[in-house]
Amino acid sequence: MNHNYLIPANSKKSMLILGFFTPVDLAIFGTGCAFTLIMLLVFNSKVGLGSVMLLLAPALIATFLVMPVPNYHNILQLITNIFTFLLGRKRYYWKGWCVKDEK
């Protein structure tokens, strides 16, 4: 084999629906689209562009959250990581292999 290893580039991608979405992502997207569809059926959208944009806002926000981005699963995961970093612990304690060697 001459030390040639075959490592799949995106091995976790096979665990996602259509290679991009988790069930939570599809639930967020489906809920946003369903809510938008209900609002379009209930409210009069002949008023103007601003009111149509407000009626389409849930679907647009849901699409923005589940849109794939490089180096992260999607924007929702990126926002979660940012909040976890900003609101998480700032002082880290050493738990390495030589922790018992310190006095």
Structure characteristics:
single chain; mainly alpha
3D structure, described in words:
The chain is an all-alpha fold and 103 residues long. The protein has helices at residues 23-42, 49-66, 75-87. The protein is built from 3 helices and no strands.
CA-based gyration radius: 22 Å
Uncertain spans, ≥5 residues at pLDDT below 50?
Answer: none
Based on Cα principal axes, name the global outline.
Answer: elongated
The beta-strand count equals 0
**Element-level helix/strand string:** HHH
SS strand fraction: under 5%
Terminal Cα separation, in Å?
Answer: 49 Å
Structural class: mainly alpha
Number of helices: 3
Mean pLDDT over all positions = 80
Helicity range: 40-55%
Major β-sheet profile: none
Could you provide a short overview of the structure?
This protein has three helices and no strands.
Write the layout of secondary structure elements.
Layout: H1 23-42, H2 49-66, H3 75-87
Helix pairs in contact: 1-2
